[in-house]
Amino acid sequence: MSAGEGVFVKIKCVFCVATIVIGTVVGLGFNSSARSLPQTASPAPVPIQFDHALICVSDLGPMQQGLTAVGLKPDYGGHHGHATTQMAQLGFPDGSYIGVEAPVDASVETGTPQSTLMKANAGPCGWSVTSTDMKGDLERISKLGVQVGEPEARSRNRPDGTMAEWRSASVGTGAPGSNLPFLIEDKGPRSNRAPHASPSTEGTTLSGIGAVVLGVKNLDESIALFRKVYGWPEPKIENHSEFGAKIAYFAGTPVMLAVATNTDSWVAERIGRLDQCPVAFLLHADDFKVASKHFSLPAGKRWFNLDVSWFDAQKLHGVRLGIIGG
Fold this sequence. Notes:
Blueprint: E1 50-56, H1 60-69, E2 75-80, E3 85-91, E4 97-103, H2 115-119, E5 123-130, H3 134-143, E6 152-157, E7 163-169, E8 182-186, H4 190-193, E9 206-215, H5 219-230, E10 236-240, E11 245-249, E12 255-260, H6 266-274, E13 277-285, H7 288-294, E14 301-303, E15 306-310, E16 321-325
Parallel strand pairs: 1-4, 5-8, 9-12, 13-16
Antiparallel strand pairs: 1-5, 2-3, 2-6, 3-4, 6-7, 7-8, 9-13, 10-11, 11-12, 14-15, 15-16
């Protein structure tokens, strides 16, 4: 999957399957001493719809096998028409999906912004949100002083011969979706691009992608950036030594920001090697206990009063993928 793949996903309020109206989180009990919004922030909270999570690898096969080994078998999604890349998709009932993108031939330059991340076998490398008014969305964000890219045509030939076409545009600096999400707008039916729920998700209570955990260098600066772009209230912050990071969570959204708690942590090493980009994805489970038992996951930890557990990262070639619910 490329920077521009995506799915129309109804984001979950505290990871429930529903379109977020972010303004509802104002009344969820935020600390009265929290910092006020920057003067440049949007005047009202802006809702977003998570489109897809992107995993970049140098070779598609091993990651397909790794996902299958943990019980999440992806489907082959075909070749891209705008680059020498191919992808596999793991779809969920709410319409969201994980896309795994890799070169068709590792010896040939892919011609995508994620080329470096694919060569580095980065794993989690981007995320996107759906846009139904790309011109308006880009104008709004640009007026806030945030860098935006021009919409670019994208396409993919599916194995069944269907042509998927869309436009994508980057927001912020770095590879598209490495921090702020890139935007996607379909040119044809959404069903041409987005997969149905993969059979391996049936009976698991997994409903979709619950959160992206973004690795950041400066937590305060990253919090301010997201609040400026989306007008969100101050996030909750917790230390999670088992994850090697201090984590900020914008309650009611799918966004978590992780900053390394020490220079020896895996989060610090990853950011130093790959720069800022997603470090993990969490899948939402409608019933955490059922999902955890189905996949034989270890006992969960509590993050922001939610249960979190992780698949075997060794089987996933270092990719941190987990479930969240409660």
